[in-house]
Amino acid sequence: MFRTSIGSSFRVLALPPRSFNCLPRSLKRSSVRMENLTFSTESNAKPRGALIVVEGLDRSGKSTQCAKLRSFLETSGHTTELWRFPDRETSVGQMISAYLSNKSQLDDHTIHLLFSANRWEKRSLMEEKLKTGTTLIVDRYSYSGVAFSSAKGLGIEWCKAPEIGLLAPDSVVFLDISPERAAERGGYGDERYERVDFQTKVAGFYQTLRDSSWKIIDAGESMEEVEKKIQGVVLDKVKECALGKPLSLLWSS
């Protein structure tokens, strides 16, 4: 029945108007449904902001480059906001902050779910911002959560599960630097996870998570060179989203 209905729909579209009036009502309905399906995606395409995620090991330069990128996009005329995860201002974020600064102890599964909950707290607002034309630069996202928890020994698929349904980034900019070189930068070791042996494990899981949305930038180059490369990658994505690229969901295929 399905093959007959679809075949009839295409024949209907080829017939002159008078012939169409003589056809059974069921065939008319199926042809109309086919036409609506064909054009709905194009007609609903609306400009929106881009979701840009910046990832990397601790002390890879994410915060600095995120701030520079925001300034560049705003100067270029794009409404832009800079977000960070964890968002330590929320009630969940405050629990995470206490854990990261070694002021509290939590089971590895518990802290992973708190990190995920912290992203879900902002999910609706994130979608609203993007749909109304604001580009979001996000310093760390689900990839950090999965890579860090997996490095502690939790199963990678278990770690990904609570992230499913969050918005997928339009581009992930990964600042690539060796753990040893990152450790030479100022302030290293202030937080729980800033240990070279642990960061080496995290780097391995980041590599496992890479997909076609990722752009790898050598974070060992000069700050200006890194900044320039990021701008080139992101500007293309911002323009693509302004043309109506639809939003998609993370790890939902």
Features:
253 residues, alpha/beta, Rossmann fold, 5-stranded parallel sheet, disordered N terminus, transferase, dTMP kinase activity, ATP-binding, Thymidylate_kin_CS, Thymidylate kinase
- Average pLDDT over all residues: 86
SSE topology string: HHHEHEHHHEHHEHHEH
Shape annotation: globular
Low-confidence stretches: 1-43
| β-strand amount | 5-15%
> What is the fold-level CATH name, i.e. the topology of the largest domain?
Rossmann fold
Multimerization state: single chain
Return the CATH class of the largest domain.
Answer: Alpha Beta
Number of helices: 12
What is the total domain count? 2
Going by CATH, the homologous superfamily of the largest domain would be P-loop containing nucleotide triphosphate hydrolases
CATH architecture classification name of the largest domain: 3-Layer(aba) Sandwich
Please bin the fraction of helical residues: 40-55%
The main sheet comes to: 5 strands, parallel
Counting helices, strands and paired strands, the structural category is alpha/beta
Radius of gyration: 23 Å
